Amino acid sequence: MKKAFLLVLFGLLFLGAAVVAFAIWADGHVAARAAGRIFDSIDGIPHREVALVLGTSKYSNGRLNSFYTARIRAAAELYNAGKVDGILVSGDNGREDYNEPAQMKEDLVALGVPAEYITADYAGFRTLDSIYRAEEVFGLQTYTVVSQPFHLERALYLAGQRGQDVIGYAAYGPAGYWGRRVRAREVLARALAVLDVEVLRREPRFLGEPVYVNRRASGSL
Q1: DSSP string, the chain
Q2: CATH code at 28-200
Q3: Distance CA 58, CA 139 (A)
Q4: CA 175 to chain CA mean position, Å
Q5: pLDDT value at residue 1
Q6: Residue 186 pairs with which residues in a beta bridge?
Q7: How many CA atoms lie within 13 A of 130 on its CB side?
């Protein structure tokens, strides 16, 4: 009985160590795939026709979500500086009373982006869905992704796995306790992302008919 217990314990310890090792490897693997493709300066980022803004909730625990507001401001900054000509907002609209893309579009309009140049993806339930649908539904192969740096690395990794030519524009990311908490959670998210695309070959929950992302004439302000 004791020997059997020790064998089970050893097996669990080995499995735990393997999971941790894989998560650490996946974290570095994802970061390496995004190296040199994330910009934090509006002057230094190249022009791309469309920006894909990855969704999140506007409010968290009853308070304004700083991740959300930073992404919206960064996207508006890109458009107003002529660095993109149209914006695709992608988020969760899984319930009738919850609509991330509609909220994102409303707030972008308030920051000076014309509504006609904002296209909504209502089935961006996960980062994988948003990235895959950008190509399969909205016809984008070359574009700029907007999110926080840690999230951008995963998004660019997913895009690279699809053969997309994508760069990232970094929105502000909170530091301190919240920054460390989110970064720790990102390690798990990256491990799952690697499993999704390199092992399980997962696809978006929904695809659908092609949709054109409307954009102004390039270079016109």
Answers
A1: -HHHHHHHHHHHHHHHHHHHHHHHHHHHHHHHHHTT-EE--TTTSPP-SEEEEEP--SEETTEE-HHHHHHHHHHHHHHHTTS-SEEEEE-B--BTTB-HHHHHHHHHHHTT--GGGEEEETB--SHHHHHHHHHHTT--SEEEEEE-HHHHHHHHHHHHHTT-EEEEEEPP---HHHHHHHHHHHHHHHHHHHHIIIII----S---S------PPTT--
A2: 3.40.50.620
A3: 27
A4: 19
A5: 65
A6: none
A7: 31
C-alpha 120/C-alpha 76 separation (Å) is 15
Tokens linked to 15: 């499995």
Beta bridge partners of 92: 123
d(CA 127, CA 208): 17
Secondary structure (DSSP) of 4-25: HHHHHHHHHHHHHHHHHHHHHH
Task: Grade residue 173 by pLDDT with cuts at 50, 70 and 90.
Answer: confident
- pLDDT exceeds 80 at position 60: yes
Domain ranges within the chain, ordered by starting residue: 28-200
Two structure tokens written together for 69: 């507001």
Q: Which two tokens stand for residue 192?
A: 């799952």
pLDDT of residue 220: 62
Nearest to 131, CA basis, from 164, 92, 169: 164
d(CA 44, CA 137): 29
On whether the CB atoms of residues 34 and 157 are closer than 8 A, the answer is yes
Taking only the tens place, the pLDDT of each residue in 11-38 is 777 777 888 899 899 999 999 999 999 9
